[in-house]
Amino acid sequence: CLGGSSFACTDLGWYYERGEGVPKDPARAAELYKKGCDGTSCQSPNLRGCINLALSYRDGIGMAPDPAQAFEILRATCVNNPDISNDESRETRAHACSLLGSMYLTGNGVEQDNAAGLTFSHQGCGGGDPFGCFNAGVIFANGLGVDVDMAKAADYYEDACDYDDGESCYNLSLLYKSGSGVEADADHAAELSGKACELGFDQACGR
Q1: pTM for this prediction
Q2: What SS3 string covers 68-90?
């Protein structure tokens, strides 16, 4: 990090946030995430650093909570055409879009806007981020600013499940069990519930 690697600054912040190998120091972690996000003369901004910094602001980790600042960082990471020259950066940008969508959905740090929540959740999902797919599934399953559409909800849950999101696998299993938005299929429902359990979603275990 001292030598100019924005990636190293982000990684070092991760260790300080968790207290692994160094004393736990969330404030120091946030400083390092900012260095990673800002980039250096040697290396472009590290998008994981930007996301970690945004989460620090959102959740008040090592600093006073500031959801509005978290929103601005996520918007810049998702919208402002950051460097996406490698797969890691593309995946990280997609996750920033998903997180941005969730802030619109909850009205945290920005005026609540279901349409924008869906737009950015869909964008994150299209970039391969399961959180965005899950959010979009929830939007259509609950009619958040759109008509309830269980078929679309199932499609989004399936995408998220394919990306190994346990809760989405479980939600999809319930749709197959009830035949809501999909053709009822008890065997497939059981398979999906089993996968959700294997992925660590405890609510699916034993069902």
Answers
A1: 0.91
A2: HHHHHHHHHHHHCCCCCCCHHHH
